[in-house]
Design brief:
alpha/beta; 7-stranded mixed β-sheet; 6 helices; about 25% helix
């Protein structure tokens, strides 16, 4: 299979038509081999308009949703970015071509080691995989200019917002009633977060950040 050609077709048919045309973002998608981040049995559909499970509880989103959330983050070349729930590392690899430094946070040593091997294999040197609990974030390396949440969530831990630099942005797809989601960017100003909605999406969710059921008598 000609993965280079498939990558161009993905960009031309799934990303540019959905109003993601910024040259830096388009270039990042064209230069990042998505097939490296999917299981061997799924490499043939790596560039299809599909969500692809990469490990339990982790998946690559459809390319359009990833591109639109990255666009919403407005990442600058000097930014330090934290990717929460980085999974296989595809989003961190993309963002590393837009930012100064990317830290890819995952919960297990196995995922972190696998990410490190993938990044080394394709020459990604601005993304550093780190192990730790997702809900805690990475306070010892904060503040961050951007925090990118790589799964749909219902509830945002306070710890994430506390790790943003003033003027920093947190981007996430927030689950809505009925199962759909909305891409949101939260911008920090002092002690508050201002929210702006961007686009409809329904990517795989992080079940750990679902709202807990409440009981009434």
């Amino acid at each position: 299979m000609d993965f280079d050609k498939a990558r161009e077709i993905m960009v031309d048919s799934q990303i540019r038509p959905d109003d993601v045309t910024e040259p830096r973002i388009v270039s990042a998608f064209l230069r990042t081999p998505r097939e490296v981040f999917v299981p061997n049995a799924r490499k043939g559909v790596a560039y299809s308009e599909l969500e692809i499970t990469t490990s339990p509880g982790r998946a690559l989103w459809i390319p359009r949703d990833t591109a639109k959330l990255i666009k919403l983050a407005a990442i600058q070349p000097s930014d330090v970015v934290l990717v929460v729930g980085a999974g296989a590392g595809y989003e961190a690899a993309l963002i590393s071509q837009l930012a100064d430094t990317v830290i890819a946070l995952e919960e297990t040593a196995a995922l972190v080691d696998a990410m490190s091997q993938r990044f080394a294999a394709i020459g990604i040197d601005r993304a550093a995989p780190v192990e730790g609990p997702l809900a805690k974030g990475l306070p010892e390396q904060a503040p961050f200019d951007v925090i990118y949440i790589a799964g749909m969530i219902e509830v945002m831990p306070d710890s994430w917002a506390g790790q943003l630099r003033d003027g920093g942005r947190l981007v996430a797809v927030m689950a809505q009633p009925g199962g759909m989601g909305r891409g949101n960017v939260f911008t920090k100003a002092g002690d508050t977060l201002a929210s702006r909605e961007g686009f409809d999406a329904c990517p795989p969710r992080f079940a750990a950040f679902d709202r807990k059921p409440t009981f009434s008598f």
